[in-house]
Amino acid sequence: xxxxxxxxxxRSIAEVDDQITRLRTLARERGLDVSGEIRSLERKLHxxxxxxxxxxxxxxxxxxARHPRRPYTRDYLELAFTDxxxxxxxxxxxxxxxxxxxxxxxxxxxxxxxxxxxxRDMKQNLRRNFGxxxxxxxxxxxxxxxxxxxFGRPVVTLIDTPGAYPGLGAEERGQAEAIAxxxxxxxxxxxxxxxxxxxxxxxxxxxxxxxxxxxxxxENSVYxxxxxxxxxxxxxxxxxxxxxxxxxxxxxAEDLQGLEIIDEVIPEPAGGAHSDWERTAAAxxxxxxxxxxxxxxxxxxxxxxxxWEKYMAMGEWRTSR
Length: 321
Fold this sequence. Notes:
Layout: H1 11-30, H2 35-54, H3 58-65, H4 73-80, E1 82-87, E2 99-106, E3 109-116, H5 122-128, H6 135-151, E4 155-161, H7 168-172, H8 175-188, E5 193-202, H9 203-207, E6 214-218, E7 222-224, H10 228-235, H11 242-249, H12 253-258, E8 264-266, H13 277-296, H14 300-312
């Protein structure tokens, strides 16, 4: 997928990319042979991407996680899965389009896939509520998880949300209860479960579909109880301190793997997932197949206690007399 949107720290990458584009246009229009120059620039571009993305700060990774050209759930459905059959509604209120879900096949195996979905433009974002689910979205997700449990099929969730929708209507319809119920029910599902943070993993809105046997993150995704801007506004009384907040929150995949909150970091291509959707989807598929292969070897009566122990072992606390 071509990328026409560049972040501030990608300026040097954009300049070389533009040079390559201009040379190709010139060669096509004038019949010139500039293949040597293009190869040289492509090598320079690859090195620039590797160097730039190897040394990103936490706040820069937040920017990459929010990149407008980053692949979303529907994009991975097209690139890594087959035979998608979407299921709708929570059977109580309505169909929340910020969460999509249904049956699909991963390398021929039927799985239930559930993911948060953002839009590419304002019209799509209004339809998808900017990827922020209402309680009926989480109730739909739970309905589909229980359906997968009924048929003994694995559940795969793709997380990409700033957070659950905080509007008055959502609160009136039981946002907190819907999230809490999902946490409880996911912890007890009698099928293998894998959650992957593909972009933003924001607060309880992400955790509501994230209590899984294996939790994975794409290299430039983030997972946090609050956004850096929100944290900075609370702790430093100014969202301008978001860079300091991002570092303090330990929201990157590398940090969270070190803290044993997640199980695997899925590498992204040089330049980030937005620079090469196909390679990113291929890496995601490989990771899912490997993790599912491991989970299949664990009897379900051992899998559920192991899931419980996994989450009980997270974090440290002290008690005082």
